[in-house]
Automatic annotation (TrEMBL):
Gene3D superfamilies attached to this UniProt entry: Vaccinia Virus protein VP39
Stated name of the protein: FkbM family methyltransferase
Length: 262
């Protein structure tokens, strides 16, 4: 073991432990990797592996965030247990449609498409900056069912979010999307007119309850399971809304839940 570094000042000697240097070295290595990735002139995609299957997902370096860094540095899905549990509970989507709301990188939709083999996949992502990269991602993953990309916000068609004591906004106009400038179209799951819906994957920032309220007719008539990424009050609000509709709340992975129809 190396001896700790001693720094001498005019008044005292300071001992700097080795673990401080190790932490600093790891931080510098991470920054070097981020810089290399952000400056890499690739077409906005990144290879990710799950269960020995390869996927090209959308990672635009201009929006390089911690979640994206975890994917790019490991080249693996951040929560593999989620998929293991999901595929145990829903072994196939044959003949059914997959609705992926908040597609972002495309990772969850593409992995679910590969392993559960739905008849079609509709990816919904409102951010303008992701459209080109998701388009390239879809083209780079030709194996599987047809994929359609929709640029829209999915909400309940009526609700507004309170921004201050005097200001309210539709979900489609919130700061999450303000980077795009201009208006974003908003619709509901019911208005999409999908038939034979086998699974809804709902992974969006903030409250998910608005999107589910806009799917009430679909949930009653078609009874699709719903995979949800949880944050904030999601668990409480979703249980209160979904249980009267005949759905069971099952925790999956680190931050997810699967709503299964009785």
């Amino acid at each position: 073991m190396k001896a700790p570094l001693h720094a001498v000042t005019d008044t005292e000697e300071i001992v700097i432990p080795d673990d401080h240097f190790d932490r600093a070295r790891r931080l510098l290595d991470r920054l070097d990797q981020q810089i290399a990735l952000m400056s890499n002139p690739v077409a906005g995609t990144c290879a990710v592996f799950h269960e020995d299957e390869a996927f090209e997902i959308a990672l635009p370096w201009a929006a390089f965030e911690n979640y994206q860094f975890k994917i790019a540095s490991r080249h693996a899905a951040p929560d593999p247990m989620l998929y293991t549990q999901l595929f145990d509970l829903i072994p196939s989507l044959a003949g059914k449609a997959l609705l992926d709301i908040g597609a972002f990188t495309g990772l969850q939709g593409l992995i679910t498409r590969r392993f559960l083999e739905p008849s079609q996949l509709l990816m919904v992502e409102p951010q303008a900056m992701m459209q080109k990269h998701l388009g390239r991602t879809i083209a780079a993953n030709p194996e599987g069912c047809p994929v359609t990309l929709l640029k829209a916000v999915i909400d309940d068609g009526t609700s507004v979010m309170q921004k201050s004591a005097t200001r309210h906004e539709r979900l489609a106009d919130t700061s999450y999307l303000r980077r795009d400038s201009g208006k974003i179209s908003a619709t509901t799951i019911d208005a999409l007119g999908l038939t034979d819906l086998g699974l809804i994957n709902l992974d969006i920032p903030g409250a998910k309850i608005y999107s589910l309220k806009g799917a009430e007719a679909t949930l009653r008539d078609q009874r699709p399971p719903v995979l949800v990424n949880l944050s904030g009050r999601d668990a409480t609000e979703i249980k209160e809304f979904m249980e009267p509709l005949g759905y069971e709340f099952v925790r999956l992975g680190n931050h997810g839940a699967l709503l299964l129809p009785h």
